Amino acid sequence: MSIQQRLATLNPRQQEAVRFIDGPCLVLAGAGSGKTSVITSKIAYLVQECGMSARRIAAVTFTNKAAREMKERVGQLLKGREGHGLTVSTFHTLGLNIIRGELKTLGYKPGFSLFDPEDAKALLRDLMQKDAQVDADQINRVQGQISTWKNDLVLPGQALSHAADEDEQYAARLYEAYGRHLKAYNAVDFDDLIMLPVVLLSNDPEALARWRRKIHYMLVDEYQDTNISQYQLVRLLMAERGTFTVVGDDDQSIYAWRGARPENLVTLGEDFPRLRVIKLEQNYRSTQLILRAANTLIANNPHVYDKALWSDKGVGAPIRIVVNRHEEAEAERVASEILTRRIKERAEWRDFAVLYRGNFQARLLELKLQHYQIPYKLSGGTSFFSRGEIKDAMAYLRLLINPGDDNAFLRIVNVPRREIGPGTLEKLANYATERGQSLFAACHEMGLEQVLPARAVERLGRFTHFIDGVRKRMDQNEAISAIREMLRDMDYEAWLYQNASAPTVAERRMANVWILIDQLEKSMQREAGDDEASEETDDVESAISRLVLRDILEQQAEEDDSDRIQLLTLHAAKGLEFPHVYVMGLEEELLPHRNAIELDTVEEERRLAYVGITRARQTLTLTLARQRKTYGELMDCTPSRFLDELPADDLEWEGRADKEDPDKKQARGKDAIAGLRSLLG
Ligand code: ATP
Ligand code: MG
Question: Matching PROSITE patterns, A to Z (predicted)?
Fold first, then answer.
């Protein structure tokens, strides 16, 4: 499609936004109104109609996924060499490119490294432990504070002089030391990717001129979520020329917690008085009921700009709200429903997306999807089977059913720590290879004492003895309890606590391991269920092999990007759209999140719900559970306040508590009996 053909499909306001190149331009509009479409069309317009070289254009957005999608959309408009050298990336990738190009000016040596948050935390921990014992919470707090300073462009000196109290002074001094050490390591952290370029371009006119010659036009998607340093980067590069187009929606600002400044929308008007503001009002994505739900919900937030979105997509199906007994029933419901709906609606897997507030909510769902063999893709988090603790537990299970599994042996022989070092393992491996034995079997050999010191032999012996003991108990028809006991006996939990950045992280990891074991137990019962005669269980070996196979299939699935349902956090879903959307966990303390309720930031949670709802094109299903395990305890849940804020007439409830909840009836019965008793005295 050429740009002329594309322009013809756009509405007059969109066309205006694409054609306007005489100054800075802001497109401010609601979800699904074609903002991203304006950006992709405008890139093609600049190249094909204005004769601008693609390598002078930079388009930035927030996630890699969004950047990939945008590239794809542009690719359909630009042919052959036209798109050569075009930058479509995240802000951070753009920053990284600038740093790469300016290494010398910035005083870094070639081959600098990028510290991920874990590396950065380790460095900070070293620095903090110099003077005192510190806990994970303190480290997280300082790390968060440093990140905020960097996003707000506050340098260490300024942080120190403005510090309000001793805590802040302490953090500011660490900020300075941390920066010095990073530099000594020839390393930068994530926030530096934006801050360093901004500091450089503000202080070095030559560098600034170089980059202004390189980038002539900038386009920014999801502008409402830029932070101060990102905004400054755009401002510095484009400056008086004002050659940029930014698009955004204040109702979709969901990154305030990471330093985003939705007020950058207002600042833009002050910094660029010539700013052309264009509003779009037609939504091309969703049915009228979905759109009305979104509009009604977000009307509960205060507004700077009023927006009136409309759609001519037809009324569409009512919005379904499905109440489930507990979280497992919720996951089961979503998985089994997608299985049947795919056929009924003649849809593909990729037409479905399941969104949720926190990654942990995906755990149960993943297991259910695997059970039904529904292909899925999990974004913005680690898939269940690729988590370290699950890999450890799986290695134990594999070794239990197959002591010849050397890979499993190597993964866990020293997890938790058993003081068995790499030197010992190397000698053991040589010895085993010579004899054509497995590592585990070799540990039982008397001859081992000739190649290893007695202490090492003893430690290996203790480990194999431990595993042999568990194997024996498993044979005595109590496999699952033997496995649970094993995990307790070796105190895997304590090991997790020692190695986690925070106690809550360790807690979550341990919970994952228990989920895996529960799953194993269930899978044995299920297989045995068909056979009334057998005691109660299928043998543990085949149940474990089934789990291992799932794991492998999972990994293979990771490689092809074909037809799969999408599992995403609400944050990661920004900018995307799907024919059928499920949003899970519409409960108080989950959505809105408990912290948000405590900190009084429910408005941001409402925007998050708004983002979720507006991802849907044809159908929207909201699910919730009446009970959910929280910190190991089964808790009653209250339906989310956001459900009350939706237009009641457009909703279709299933399993609503106040209508036919047997548990509640029973509870009321009990109340009545108690009341009678007290009356009778
Ligand atoms: P969000 O706020 O969720 O990021 P958006 O404003 O960026 O949404 P787009 O993703 O650009 O919206 O567009 C939403 C859908 O509408 C897309 O499927 C897009 O192809 C389609 N669309 C956009 N403009 C038009 C148009 N003028 N005619 C028909 N379809 C359009
Ligand atoms: Mg968009």
Answer: UVRD_HELICASE_ATP_BIND (PS51198), UVRD_HELICASE_CTER (PS51217)
Q: Which of 69, 221, 332, 589 is catalytic?
A: 221
Return d(Cα 572, Cα 367) in angstroms, integer: 21
- Please name which ligand lies nearest the alpha carbon of 221: 2
Q: Report the pocket of ligand 1 as residue ranges, CB < 6 Å.
A: 9-11, 14, 31-37, 249, 252, 284-285, 575, 577, 614
Nearest to 496, CA basis, from 406, 408, 415: 415
Note the pLDDT of residue 111.
61
pLDDT at site 116: 67
How many contiguous H segments (helices) and E segments (strands) does the chain have? 32, 16
- Residue 159 is encoded by which pair of tokens? 């942080």
- The CA distance from 652 to 632, in Å, is 32
Instruction: Give, for ligand 1, the residue of 72, 284, 291, 615 to mutate: max count of ligand atoms closer than 8 Å to Cβ.
Output: 284
269 CA distance to ligand 2 middle (Å): 21
Residues for the chain: how many in total? 681
Ligand (nearest to CA of 31): 1
**Partners of residue 227 on adjacent β-strands:** 260
554 is catalytic: no
pLDDT averaged per 10 residues, the chain (length 681): 91 97 94 96 96 95 81 88 88 87 86 69 81 82 93 94 91 93 81 94 96 95 92 90 93 84 83 93 96 94 80 95 95 95 91 94 91 83 71 89 82 90 85 88 92 94 96 86 94 90 83 88 67 52 71 48 87 92 97 93 96 97 93 88 96 75 47 45 38
What is the reported pLDDT for 549? Answer: 60
Give the ligand 1 atom nearest the CA of 14. Answer: 27
The pLDDT, as a whole number, for residue 544 is: 79
User: What ipTM was assigned to the predicted interfaces of this complex?
Assistant: 0.99
Å from CA of 100 to ligand 2 middle:
29
Mutating to test ligand 1, I would choose from 13, 225, 285 the residue with most ligand atoms within 8 A of its C-beta, which is: 285
For the CA of 614, the nearest ligand: 1
Handedness of CA 185, 197, 204, 43 (dihedral sign): positive
HSE, CB side, 13 Å, CA atoms: give it for residue 645. Answer: 19
